[in-house]
Amino acid sequence: MGERLSIKTERDEQQLFNSRAIVAGLIVLIALCGIGTRLYFLQVKEHDTYTELSKQNYQKHIPRPPTRGQIYDRNGVKLADNHAQYILEVVWDSVPDQNDDGRKRWDDMQMMLERLNKIVPLSEKDLRIFGQQVNRHSRYQPTPLKENLTEQEMAMFAVNKSRFPGVNLERRMQRFYPLGTVASHVIGYVGRIDDRDLERLDKNNYAGTSHIGKVGVEAAHEDRLHGQAGYDLDEVDAHGRGQDMIERKEAVGGQDLILGLDINLQLKAEALLKGERGAVVAIDPRNGEVLAMASVPTFDPNLFVDGISSKIYTELRDDPDRPLYNRALQGAYPPGSTVKPMNTMAGLYEKVIWPGKTVYDPGFFQIPGHKHRYRCWKKSGHGGVSMDYAIAQSCDTFFYDMAYRMGVDKFSGYMSLFGFGKKTGVDLTSESDGLMPTPEWKQRRYKQVWYPGDTVNIGIGQGYWLATPIQLAHATASVAMRGKRIRPHVLRAFRTAKDRPEQILEPEVIAQIPARDKRHWEMVVQGMVHVVHASYGTAKRVGIGAPYTIAGKTGTAQVFGIAQNARYDASRLAKRLHDHALFVGFAPADNPQIAVSVIVENGGGGSSTAAPIARKVMDAYLLKKYDDETPVEETGEVEPADIVPRVEGADE
Amino acid sequence: MISGLLPASLLKMLQRVDLVMLAALSLLMFMGLVTLYSASDAEMTMVYRQGIHFALGLVLILLFSQVEGKTLRQFAIWLYGIGVVLLILVLMVGVIKKGAQRWLYVGIDIQPAEMMKLAVPMMVAYYFSEKPLPPRFLDIIIALILVAVPMVLIMKQPDLGTALLIALSGLFVIYLAGMSWWLIGGSLAAIAIAAPLMFNYGMHEYQRQRILTLFDPETDLLGTGYHIYQSKIAIGSGGVYGKGWLHGDQSHLDFLPERHTDFIFAVFGEEFGFLGNLLLIGLYVFIIWRGLYIASKGADTFSRLLAGSLSLTFFIYLVVNTGMVSGVLPVVGIPLPLVSYGGTSVVTLMSAFGIIMGMKKRKRNYQTDE
């Protein structure tokens, strides 16, 4: 090659390279601008999203469940309490390598559990539940292994604790009902949170809480009792290991509830019903506070707290006496003659009767043009019957006639004003509506027209009419208050903390039942007083010796032909066909302090079975006469000496 | 003053070092150590060791910068030939780690592919330095074969990242040699057609998975997608100004995998933010441009092609790594140059910079020659 050519080539190649290098340099710039754009997108535009994701990564809320509020009766007797229970928890990551293979795995866990089993017996159920849960938890988080350790098990574990790293003894709170079966339908119980609860509850507020109110006050006032959950906001690493606490929000304990219930009265009522199936509801008519609500037979709510065994549950559920069933709220019975005072108010309002009007009772009533005889309980008849006498003697003919002439629309309409056919709205769960029948209802339910005879039947509280004991007590209280309806309520007061004052709930006036003349109330009350205190009263025996005036009304409801509670036991069939015995009343008649409804299923006559129970309940409340029942003495204001510990699981 | 303290020979050697580039590299290494210190939770162990790697690297720069193009090109064939033989040996008797056969045991484990990162561009540059430029079609074909042989051997190991870097380093030489734009365009079109076929038949399942995961990382949050997901969170949560040095939650709480090595860019991005990233990338751009500038001042064709190719390869490291960590390119094991922890890559990269510096035309020599 010649030198000139070489130099020319050299220069060309230099130029060629330079142009290529410049293009390459531009490509570098463009490509890195691309990366820069990507970073701009991540770090500037989407920054907030990634910050949130980053927080989700490393921030973890450790729930601090609130202490469930306690429940007291009106005198401070504790009805629901929190007791400490001890449980064993395992943190898998802290369980050491057992077989020295250098790795911590499931077989190490099993070897540890086998050794532990010799110290603290572990049931198969414990192990099964633990096996399921441990895989769902982080290895650095505790998983419960065994609950409810006995003192002996605790002691055995404490002595051997050093041999079991990773296994911890933890204290948790469990709900406890000190009085057992007493008032269990009212207090209710808590149970483990199930899928249905999860659907409706606020998951944040229940994080770390395992139990929730299922029935009774525990369920109805869950919001007050539960409190407000707190949390520790912890910084965790990628393995779920806690690093630092970022923030702590203390839990706010639930409210303590003070019920209107007088537990001694409750005990008395339950004792009076002992051996029977029935209910007693006592209300303070002046403010609607439920003083007693007994439903017998009853059950022990403590059984439900820790998960009731299916055997015991089946027994309770299939018991023909239905102990789980709250008769006072859920039991719908024909009210029978107990509603005659209210019927009288309806007749007066609709002007089909008036003071001074008499009806002739030949022992039966006939719809004009019909042959069928609707019999009075007194076959010979009462002869000429006044309004007062009709109530005191419970003359059926008088009320047949009155209802017939009023017609079902007016009759049912006025009775609805007393709350029949609707929930009273008492602050408890699963209240029944009862039934105040109307032609529309019958058409809907049976696809049949309403016969005039149906009206005649409901005139004496029979036929399709069904009422719950709380409805009867509420209606009676409304009569006692001369038409002022106050919503019955179980919760009397609450306090947000032990050292905070009790706040008493204002009674809620539902309505004033209209009357043509205010004196009509006095007339009807007078009739009810005569039921108990007049020589011609159907319940004159229970009025004997009473130092106060009772206004009452007996009732006897025919069971025959009414298909409810249809779980018959052959041996009890005869008894189950007996009439239900009922009584409603209030006292003192001129200054009402207690209104009572009593029903004894298949108890026979209202005057013989139900009325004496009502009298004893009134005596107990008004005269503090509890007979042989030992009153429970305790004041809730003075707390037991033991300090209530920080609650781990609210009520476990 | 200082020059008086140094032996004359060392002073002479230092004159061959490009001080502008050295300053930029030193700043980069400093940023690397600072980030590494944070990535290792304020532990000095790794920082010390990386410091030793850097010291060794600086010595290599000093040594390689002394070597002229015309000297180096004599070794090209030998290096390339030995490299290919070693790569074949790797496939036959190599050490297997983590499912890949990349190492040869000769007292210590060595990785012949690393050497090929230098040998391949040297070989191709050498080939073209013998030919008139722009290259003829046949020369391009031969050059492509020279590139393909080691590339295929390395892909077999398998090591997709290294194979890619080596292939590109060879292709850059061909490009810089002046391969016609028409051919480049045609080849790119052919690749666009071949790529889907390659994806379906030429890849390992895990490589395919990595690419698939890239397009929808959230589908595989427990596997490959987790890396990308967490590094995107780290970078994104860094914001404009970053969370501050030592304050990256993502890295310090272990959410970021491979945070000392391939994903260290996410640590940097989380703690120094968008502005820090711009600064870092700007520094890289400067180094690449300086490399291309030195290349254009090369003594001869071989020097220019080699220095240019090595500079552009450095750029590929950067783009592939940052693209991978920020979730726009597949996860291939390529470190962030001089920031990611690792002795091997530091040694290779610093050797490359030494070589680049050595390729510069020597004024004094030139004058005496004439």
Keywords:
heterodimer, A: 652 residues, alpha+beta, seven-stranded mixed sheet, five-stranded antiparallel sheet, 25 helices, 38% helix, disordered N terminus, B: 370 residues, mainly alpha, three-stranded antiparallel sheet, 16 helices, disordered C terminus
Describe the structure.
The complex is a heterodimer of chains A (652) and B (370). Chain A is an alpha+beta fold and 652 residues long. Helices cover 38% and strands 20% of the residues of chain A. In chain A, the strands form seven sheets. In chain A, strands 2, 3, 4, 5, 10, 18 and 19 form a seven-stranded mixed sheet that branches. In chain A, strands 12-11-23-22-21 form a five-stranded antiparallel sheet. In chain A, helix 11 packs antiparallel against helix 25 (606-623) and helix 17 packs across helix 20. The longest helix of chain A has 43 residues, at 3-45. The termini of chain A are far apart. Chain B has helices spanning 2-5, 8-15, 19-39, 45-64, 69-93, 112-129, 137-155, 160-177, 181-201, 205-215, 224-238, 249-252, 264-296, 301-325, 343-358, 363-369; strands at 95-97, 100-106, 108-110. In chain B, strand 1 and strand 2 (100-106) form a beta hairpin. Chain B has a three-stranded antiparallel sheet, with helices on one face. Chain A binds chain B through residues 9-10, 12-14, 16-18, 20-21, 24-25, 28-29, 31-32, 34-36, 38-40, 42-44, 46-47, 49-51, 53-54, 57-58, 235-239, 243, and chain B through 132-134, 172, 175-176, 178, 230, 232-240, 249-250, 253-255, 269, 273-274, 277-278, 281, 284-285, 288-289, 292, 295-296, 298, 300-301, 304-305, 308, 312, 315, 318-319, 322-323, 326-328.
